[in-house]
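Notebook B, p. 112. Complex prediction, attempt 2.
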Amino acid sequence: MMSVLLAVALLLAALLLPLLAFWPRRSRQGAHPQVGRSRDRAQPAGRTVEARRRELEAERRAEELLRSVVGEDAWQAYRALGFLFAFGPGEEDGQPGYGYLIYPHRAMVSFDARSGVLLNELCVSFPDRIAALEEDGGGERLPDADDVLAKWMAIHGDELALLAEANVLPPGRQIDPDQARRDIARLGEWTARPSGNPAAS
Amino acid sequence: MKSGHGDQLLAEGDPEVSEDNERLLAAFREQLDAGMWAAVPVAGAAGRHEAVMVREFGEVPIGTEQVIFFPPAAGGA
């Protein structure tokens, strides 16, 4: 019998409402009271600094998670190219027939993996309905790295469910087609590297 | 994953241990009841990095190190 020590970590969160309710209040009370002449004027600046700090910390955590899930090569591609990618299943010759460019907080672009022809834009988001009910009114969204990871996991885990939710549009609605073509070419160069592996993601 | 916060640890433990299993199951159900999607990173053929979606605690593959919950997809603009 193999080791039964299966460490299962359930990640994410949704229901830490007391903590979330506390943070905005703490930030308004001002880690930076010297900013502005009155307490009221100091509040927006204090909030901005605190919000920015939280945003950076959230992005750092999201990038760590992304790297651990998609692997080093896809992580390096994301860092170098600015988007993640995924390919459909291999066809008779083992090569994927189509792929996706996965941009943070923008539409995904599907393309013919052989010809590079753009197929569709898939507009999809992951709105946090619980956060939307909180004091900040839903202004927060997933960090960039979490957004691309959510899309990547949904494509790999249940592509049809993701497509069922997405607004599927012709190319060019949100992403400049010329940019998408350039990104497909850059992706081709990336995966053609000696260490590149289009099947790795 | 949580808007504006990144990932946060909800629960951890050894599913072979009864008390841990109950706690993991409760956390799992709480997230899915809240409408979250759950995914498990897995290693596919030739070491490919992949993910599977799970809808029941019993679907979590043996040996899983983490289950990631994230808000469900919705059509964007």
